[in-house]
């Protein structure tokens, strides 16, 4: 599917924590419906104004009936600071949906665990929605440094919901990997910091369970043209923006 450029309106913009924002925008292109694990390049500043690069942000939730997309993102740099200043009624540019996304079809009917860390939990909500719509209730494991966000809305979509925090202020005191028993699942779908995903992948490999991960990379073009987002795989370098961001963990962490 080719990425589409579209100027859209901000409909709602909420601060969930000091640095986490939930932005709802219009998405009038129903013929270009995003799926779980895909992302858009977001921009609300002119091409000749720094930062040069647009910001790749995954789809947190897509509502086809309403024609809206939600982006859950962390403010951590010039681009996201500009995005964070947007108010309802403001306009921004979206280019996408881009990337391969998760293969939801092949996960349906299986015992599935979703494992997310920090802002890596963002795409897992759309994933949980699509799995649920297909009759599969995944279990959800999430880890945060301290203050969790967006956990409660997984409750109706998922079976078990388990929370870990590094600080121990909420949920289990420790790493999310300590809560996960991969042998209870056919498939583990994971998004978060790379050390966490590597740890999850290792646990899965030890138990012979397939682990699918969504990688994050800095991106320039977002369409596979600049090779700026290449990752090493067992079959050579691949563009995270076009051939990913979703890969079998053995392909990217076994490389
Ligand atoms: Fe240009 Fe991926 S960002 S190839």
Layout of secondary structure:
Blueprint: E1 4-15, E2 20-26, E3 39-43, E4 55-58, E5 61-63, E6 68-74, H1 78-84, E7 91-98, H2 104-107, E8 112-117, H3 122-133, E9 139-144, E10 161-165, E11 172-173, E12 187-191, H4 194-207, E13 210-214, E14 230-233, E15 236-239, E16 246-248, H5 249-253
Parallel strand pairs: 8-9, 8-12, 9-10, 10-11, 12-13
Antiparallel strand pairs: 1-2, 1-7, 2-6, 3-4, 3-7, 5-6, 13-16, 14-15
Bound molecules: FE2/S2 (inorganic) cluster (FES).
FE2/S2 (inorganic) cluster is lined by residues 219-222, 224-229, 239, 241.
Report on the structure:
- The chain is an alpha/beta fold.
- It has 5 helices and 16 strands.
- A 7-stranded antiparallel β-sheet has the order 4-3-7-1-2-6-5. A 7-stranded mixed β-sheet has the order 11-10-9-8-12-13-16, with helices on both faces. Strands 14-15 form a two-stranded antiparallel ribbon.
- Strand 8, helix 3 and strand 9 form a beta-alpha-beta unit.
- The model has no long low-confidence stretch (mean pLDDT 95).
- The structure holds FE2/S2 (inorganic) cluster (FES).
CATH topology label of the largest domain: Rossmann fold
Distance N terminus to C terminus?
A: 28 Å
The biggest beta sheet is recorded as: 7 strands, antiparallel
**Ligand kinds:** FE2/S2 (inorganic) cluster
Give unreliable regions as ranges.
Answer: none
Short description:
Helices cover 16% and strands 34% of the residues.
Please give a handful of descriptors for the protein shown:
7-stranded antiparallel sheet; 2 domains; 16 strands; binds FE2/S2 (inorganic) cluster; alpha/beta; Rossmann fold; single chain; 7-stranded mixed sheet; 255 residues; globular; Elongation Factor Tu (Ef-tu), domain 3; 34% strand
